[in-house]
Structure formats: structure tokens, C-alpha cells
Amino acid sequence: MNFLLCTAMGYFLGTINPAYIFGKLRGFDIRGRGSGNAGATNVTLVMGKAAGALCAVLDIFKSYFAYKLARMLFPALTYAGILASCACILGHIFPAWMGFAGGKGLACMGGLVLAYDAKLFLILLVIEVLLTLISNYICVMPLSLCVILPVIYAWQTGDAAGTLLLASLIPVVVYKHLPNLQRILTGQEARISWLWNAKKEEERLKEKFSEQEWNKIYRKANQK
User: Fold this and answer.
1) How many angstroms separate the CA atoms of 42 and 30, rounded?
2) For the CA atoms of the chain, what is the radius of gyration?
3) Rounded to an integer, what distance in angstroms lies between the CA atom of residue 77 and that of residue 165?
4) What is residue 190's DSSP assignment?
5) Where do the structural domains in the chain lie, given as residue ranges?
């Protein structure tokens, strides 16, 4: 019963989606703009850097809160924190009340790491930022993090069950990022350099689409 309650609590917190709420407050569904994703990166594309940063912070702390609350409510449950935070990530990615179409879980994974070990969070943040800047693609961050985290946890603890819980996120995160990987192969994925050189990146992307496709994408990202 504690296992089910802990999982349900984490999942429910995960379904509270700041990106979706921010969009609705402005009169639209964020999933109909930009990349179509209900997450901080798309909020940055559609609403600006400040809104995107706030969305990322809220997503981090909902996962962090799920971890800490579970440890407090279910002290006898060995993996309460990890379980609740993993469920929170799944709730963020597959929120039932949003038709199971949510975000991609990067910030929520960050919240799990922060709750588990703040020092590790800072170390992984530096590593992931470097990997992202080197690759120039934001999707490298969640794809690498979902693999690195269980490996580090296993190395630190030797705990097979906890490692398996963390590793269960890998197929989910990879599945959610398959479209990004496909766009990277065709050159149609936006690069992280868009944040500081939007004009150059738009020119590059425009060459990868037909005029009709590009006009549709541009209109979708910038419609009022």
C-alpha cells in the first residue's frame, strides 16, 4: 500500500505542468506552439528566456519536493524518495489529465539528483552543460543524464534495486527523444546556439525545409 501511495503521490505532483499552465494563462496551449512540447525548453522558445528559466526551476523543485515528501511520509519504504521522484518524472512526461502528452523530463531528473545529492547535482550540471555545448543539441542532456545517473548511483551504493528504478527511466526518455534524434540526422533539429544566435540558426534551419514547411513552423512558433 505504501508503495502504491508513494508512486501515486509522485505521479500526481509530476502532472502539475508549469509550461502548460503558463500557456493557458496567456490564452493558448503550449503544445500547439514552437516544438509542441510542454516543457521549459519550448517555453523559452515561445515565451522567452525568463519564463523558460522559471518553468525549469518549478519542474526541478516539484521532483525535489516529491523526493523529500516521500521520504518524510513513508520512512519505512526503502526507496521512497527515488520511487516518488521517478513517478514524478513519468507524471510530467505522461500526465493523464493532459492526454498523456507532457514534457520530456529533463528538469524533473535534475530535481531527483538535487534531492539525492546536492554536490552530485552541481557536478552533473557542469558535465551536462559541457556535453550540450560540445554537441550543440539540448536533447543530449536528458539522454546522457538518464544513463549517467544510474551508473553513478550503482557505483556509489552497489544497490541493485535502486539502480534498476533509476534505469527504468532510460527507455522512457529515449522514446520521448526519438523525434529529436531523427531531426538531428536530417539536420532539422534546432541547436542550442539558437539562444545566442537566433538569426543564424533560423537561416540554417530554413534551408532544411521546403518554403511551405518553414512558413508553417515559423507561424506556429510566433503566432499571437
Assistant:
1) 8
2) 18
3) 14
4) P
5) 2-222
Q: How many CB atoms lie within 10 A of CB 202?
A: 14
Quote the Cα angle for 110-205-195, to 5°: 40
Contact 106, 142 (CB under 8 A): yes
CA distance 170 to 217: 30
CA distances from 189 to 54, 138, 171, 192, 217 (A): 24, 10, 21, 10, 12
For the chain, the distance separating the N- and C-terminal CA atoms, rounded to the nearest angstrom, is: 47
pTM of the shown model: 0.89
Task: Give the separation between CA 165 and CA 15, rounded to whole angstroms.
Answer: 20
- Cell numbers describing residue 109: 531528473
pLDDT of residue 57: 95
10-residue stretch averages of pLDDT, the chain, 224 residues long: 92 95 92 86 87 94 96 92 95 94 92 95 94 90 94 93 94 92 85 78 76 61 54
- How many whole angstroms separate alpha carbon 183 and alpha carbon 22? 27
Round to whole Å and give the CA distance between 112 and 208: 37
